[in-house]
Backbone:
């Protein structure tokens, strides 16, 4: 079964660990991948300075609470769970789950594409070949990022990192960055 503790290093590697506040990034003030908006969702009244001072343990607690869904531990393949978690962090939970449900449909499962991840979604994920899901999710991420970049030319500077994120499929079942 999947583990948050194996997935979180991948997320932090994709998100970065330093404080940023890039005007081209709609996320705004961010540290450990946690935006001011996200922090205010768990700590009302938080400021940019609170984001700047966010510790890794605090960030991990927010990721577990806000992005690691209650059924993610039930996913059999760590790489698939990590990829889903990464999509939820970057796109929002509903959009990440929706993409995984589309990938399950692509793998031949009859499943609602509703952004709600529960026992039916877990069963479809676990009945699908992990490699097929990862290829499908990678393609969905690449298309998503291409469209996102096309909306604003200033975002071009993020292409390399976003495409590396999209292409990540883990080097083995541990979910570590290849």
Residues:
């Amino acid at each position: 079964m999947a583990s948050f503790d194996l997935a979180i290093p991948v997320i932090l590697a994709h998100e970065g660990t330093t404080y940023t506040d890039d005007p081209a990034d709609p996320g705004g003030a961010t540290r450990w991948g946690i935006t001011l908006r996200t922090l205010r969702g768990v700590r009302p009244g938080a400021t940019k300075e609170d984001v700047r001072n966010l510790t890794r343990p605090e960030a991990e607690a927010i990721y577990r609470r806000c992005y690691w869904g209650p059924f993610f531990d039930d996913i059999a393949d760590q790489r698939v769970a990590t990829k889903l978690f990464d999509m939820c962090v970057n796109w929002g939970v509903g959009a990440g789950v929706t993409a995984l449900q589309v990938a399950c449909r692509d793998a031949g499962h009859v499943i609602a594409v509703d952004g709600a991840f529960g026992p039916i979604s877990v069963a479809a994920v676990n009945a699908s070949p992990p490699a097929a899901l990862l290829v499908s999710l990678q393609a969905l991420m690449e298309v998503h990022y291409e469209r996102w970049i096309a909306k604003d030319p200033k975002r071009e500077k993020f292409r390399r990192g976003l495409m590396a994120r999209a292409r990540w499929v883990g080097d083995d079942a541990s979910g570590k960055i290849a």
The mean pLDDT is 93. The chain is about 55% helix and 0% strand. The chain has one domain: 4-167. The domain at 4-167 is CATH 1.20.141.10 (Chitosanase, subunit A; domain 1).
